[in-house]
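Section: Multi-chain targets

For targets with more than one molecule, the full set of components is provided together so that the structure can be written out for the assembly as a whole rather than chain by chain. Components appear in the order listed by the source. The example entry contains two components.
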Amino acid sequence: MTKTSTSQNNVNLPIPNMFQPRTDIESDAEIDLFYDQIKGKLDRLAKDPQDETINKILAYSRSL
Amino acid sequence: MNLQSYNDQDLVKVYIAGNENGLQELLRRHKSKIYTSIYLLVKDQYLAEDIFQDAFIKVINTLRSGRYNEEGKFLPWVMRIAHNLVIDYFRREKRTPIITSADGMDVFNMLHFYDESAEDKMLRDQTHKDLKAMIHLLPDEQKEVLLMRHYADLSFKEIADLTDVSINTALGRMRYALSNLRKMLKTKEMTYKG
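Its structure, encoded as tokens over all components, is:
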């Protein structure tokens, strides 16, 4: 008899099963509320490229 | 000419007609969205700067050559170019993004050795670092959707088109991304309390 199996590559997963489809009850409303709560924090991670990069792009455009 | 009131398509037309200010305004308007999405994917400022620059070189070349499809929206189009450049980079490097924080620290050590008695600013900075580290821990496909949705402000239809999946899959990935971030934050809170 041939045994078949599906390999699992969890090498990069920090906590086993953390990213598996959720089995606990977690309502859409809870997720939406959570998203509203962290939006401000996510916004604070936003970054701009350096002015030098913008200037290089504009200089390239003007050179054409 | 006050270009700030122009929509993206009009700015593209202005630029194609030869007014450099059109490009300048498009960059001012979208640079943060595009750059943040790239930066949080590649986790390296200098690499992100290079990819951002390369993306706009492609944008300029396409616009100047008259190959731009006016039916498409400007931002999703640039995001697609940037996204493809990020994928190209990881293919070349034969590695996948994820796991350690930008400064190379072990993410879980960073989360566990939180200093509860630090000043407010330090707390804020730490929360900032923690959240960034948690985003990096998300599986790539979830991280991509979160970044495209939150930072690039793309619709789920646009994200679905860009990543070649159905709208439902894009929606599901966003849900899982948020759910996983929530779990990680809960775990961190329990660590503080424990």
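Residues 99-194 of chain B form a domain with the Arc Repressor Mutant, subunit A fold (CATH 1.10.10.10).
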